Each structure stands twice: as C-alpha cells, then as structure tokens.
Amino acid sequence: MLKRTRSKSESRGGGGGRKISSLTMTDLNAHSGDRKRTCAFTSDACQILNELRKNNLLCDAKISAKKDLTEEYVEFPVHRFILAASSPYLRMAFTNMQHSENPFLQLDIGCDALESLLDYTYTRECTLTLDNINRIIDAAKLCQMTSLFQYCCEYLMNNLNDENIFHLYNFAKIHSNSKLLYVTYEYLMQNFIKIIKINKSFFELSIEQLIELIANDDLNIRNEENLFDACIKWIDYDIEQRKSFITQLIHNLRLGLIPIQLFITKIKQHSYIKDNDECKPIIGETLRLLYKLDNDGLMDTDIDCPFIRPRHAHEMIFAYGGWSGGNATSMLEAYDIRADKWTVVSTDQVPPRAYHGCITVANKMYVIGGFDGIEYFNSCRTFHLIDRIWNEIAPMNERRCYVSVAYLNGLLYAMGGFNGHVRQNTAEKYLFETNQWSTICPMHVQRSDASACTLNGNIYM
C-alpha cells in the first residue's frame, strides 16, 4: 500500500496542503525594477468633477467675471484645489484667502472666456472658435495657464488660412511660441504671392515687416518680378507716405534674377525709380551683372551679390549619374520647379555610376548599386541635399544594377536587378539605425529595370 506523506513545508504552512508565499512591498519593487506607478484622472472622473462644479456641489469658492457688453458680473462656483493645481495665479489668490469663510475672486475677463477656462481646467478641453479664441487666450495669460495657451495655439495651427496668416504670424512672434511661429512662417513663405492677392492685411504691413519678408531667402516665388509688383501695390496703397521707401524695397529684391529686357522696360523705367537718384546705384549694379551674365557668365564672387543670389528652392527634382557620351557620369543636377531651371550641383566628388537605384529620404539622396561600364556595384552612397556632402553607407549583400528601390515604413528596399550574370529575384532591406542590409523573402520571378512605388502600406513593382 502506498501512503502519501506530507512534506515539511506543507506541515508548516497548513491551508489544505498548498504552499502560500507572501510578497512584501520591497519584494514587489525588486521585481518591478523600482518603477513608480503613475495615476491620472480618467476622462469620466474629469466629467464628474465638472458636473459637480456646474451643479454647485462640494464647491468651496466663487469666481466672478463680467457679462459681455454689460457691467453685470456673473458668479461661478468652483473647487479651490482644482483651480489651484492648474493656475499659479489662482493658486496664489486662493492661498491668500485660505482662512476666509466664503472665498470670492473677481477676474477682469468676460464670462464666456471664464466658462471656457473652467471647462478646460476640469476636463482639459473646451470649445474654441475663431470668434472666442482671442478672449480665451487673454484669460489663459491672465491666469498663467500655459497648457491652455498651448491648447489654443494648437487650434490656431489647425485653422491657418490665407486671410489670418499675417495676424497669427505676428501673434506667434509676440508670444514667442516657437511651434506656432514655425508653422506660420512655413505657410507664409510657401504661399506668399497667393496670400497677398486676397489678404488686405498685406497693405497694413510696416516697411520693416515688408522688408523682413521680401529679403528672406526662404520666400517661395516663381518670378522675382511678381515680388516687385507686390511692393509697388504696397506703395500705391499710400503713395505720399510710402513712395520714399522704393529704394529700400528694391535693395532687398533679387533684381538680377529678372530677365534683362524685362528689367529695362519694367523696373528701370518705372516712374518711382527712373527719376530717383538713390535708386541709380542699385539699377547700375544690377545692369552690370545682367550684361555680364549674358556675355561672360558669372564668377563665383558674383553669386554673393544680394541682387543676384537665388532664393532657397522649395521643390526640387534631382538627376544623378547615368550614361552620357558613351561613358558613365557622376554629374548631379537639380531642377528648381519654381524657377523652371536645371542647375549642376556636383560633378567630381564621387566615381561615375549608371543604371543605379535612386531615392530621397528626409534630407538625403540614396544611390543604390549601379554599373560604371566595367564593374557591377553592391556599394551605396548618400548625398546630403543641404550640406552637399557625399558619404558611403554599408554595401548590399548582392551586386545590383537596374535595381528597383522603394522606401516604406522607415525602411529602404532594394529589389531585383542584374549582377552581371543573371537577373535576380532576391531583395533586401536597409536599416538606417544600424547601417545594415539584410535579405528578405525573394520575389516569385526575376526582375530588373522595373519601376517601384508604394501605396497603402505595400510596395508595387
């Protein structure tokens, strides 16, 4: 007969023969790596607190604000600790009256703005419109509520348009809001000519504000003469007060980018310019550069002249390498869509290459594989489009010319191609973080010289 015996641990522990172990808080912290657990109000809890406020339940103070267009004040019951946690201004105010039996605070803002401020304080959201946004921003500034101010700025960024851009750009500068300033700046630089055709605020700009814009290298304009026309319209809005600014304005234009015949007939002969002695040195220097461009071309030192220095391109097409005159080439050219012009960017920093894959990711152009007439490459290189520097990156696992390339979900793919012997069905992906290529599942058939694109999370060849 077999007889079951109880172990020592079971005898000591009791409890039906199960071993029970207890963990102290020290043990739990040891297992969790001493991580602190954070707790936050749920949206439901925030809504309940706001309902308590609106129904004057458990409130311990009151705030009043002026009713719009009247001298009458409206009172709002509140919970001091919630407002004190959200606003340094209100925390100081309520702390100073902590011994008061009926704490009461009067704010110099509209009651609709205060209602929105309280909604945001309790729920972290409120109703914003283009009509009430300025009043709510003023209330946020008064109460030193940075989060509400940022909440309003997010709304403004999502509601930019051609009619409010000047106002929001100046607002961002005044309040030193870097994110809003960046968004409004990019919008203004990209759409300037379109904006000034419909936005009457353009005519209200000061001379300093106008010069800041027209002198900017980032200004996206197709023809410099369009900017000259805009300056003339700005002067015409108040001729007597603004005619004298013509010299300052044309001094900040890239007059050397205007075709010479158009410059002579439209700029040089304009009534504001032809009899203005202060304009003559600018006109003379521009003509000298334009004649030199037509006859001899420009020297490198001429490019530094502010009259002829190109503005930054916003949209470019790059063409690198290829086959030219029976040989592979290393020439890199850029097409400026705005200026409708091709420019040679680089020619001699890297060996020639043809039949390669080429793709841009962020600020870099990636050149994948290729052929130089003798060797088939697995090597890859990048060209930084801003710094204009070439760099080698890790080579692929296979030699590939006529290779198809695509970028998807943070990865660069090289597919198919010709290695000098056979067309391939293999494919590989490049990890930017580790600078490493790794093979992926091969294609069903061999492919080379095929186009590739992405759509809805897939690569199509």
From TrEMBL:
Residues 59-130 form the BTB domain. Residues 1-22 are annotated as: Disordered. Coiled coil: none annotated. The keyword Phosphoprotein does not apply. SMART domains: BACK, BTB, Kelch. Keywords: Kelch repeat, Repeat. This is BTB domain-containing protein. It comes from Rotaria sordida.
